[in-house]
Amino acid sequence: MIITSSRKPSQRTRSFLRDLERTLNLPYIQRGKLSLKELFDIDKHILLIGEFKGNPGTLVVYDVENCKRLSSFITVKLQREICGSKIYNKDGVKLVVDDKLWEKEGFKEIYDNYDKFLFRHLNLNEDAEIILRLERDPKYLFAMQFYKGRAKIGPLIRVKSLKIFDSLY
């Protein structure tokens, strides 16, 4: 899986992409003039971060093999806003789901979709964690926070919505 952005991303979106690159240990490719088709030639699984009013606003995962895409509206806090510094994670991550989330109606289906499109394509490891947790604000489905041990190491991603499409475009 590779990480990229929409064309001409803002500085905040580029910072978020670099945070994901450091935390998930996945390659970040600057999009420039590359078309989606050219990106699909590089890798069959693409994580594309889009913008809304100059901020990271969409998370789209393309699965070329199955001709599907998962699209989510998100809000984020950058690594520097959470940790105050750049933290590199070369070990991969482990996925942990907060028990309260399993009690939320419809979460199992949401989790299954994220697992199929995103989580199984990450470098998973026992040392670092992605913790999925319930948000107090009901407008969010859940939040993703990255940890190494007890320390937060990455950006906070709050997911507002999720849709699956049967086409790549």
From TrEMBL:
Domain Brix per the UniProt entry, residue ranges: 1-169
Record-level Gene Ontology MF annotations: rRNA binding
PROSITE patterns: BRIX
One of the protein's GO biological processes: rRNA processing
Keyword terms of this UniProt record: Ribosome biogenesis
Alphabetized InterPro entries for the sequence: Brix, Brix_dom_Rbsml_bgen_prot
HAMAP family in the cross-refs: BriX
Free-text function comment from the UniProt entry: Probably involved in the biogenesis of the ribosome.
Protein name (record): Probable Brix domain-containing ribosomal biogenesis protein
Species: Methanocaldococcus infernus (strain DSM 11812 / JCM 15783 / ME)
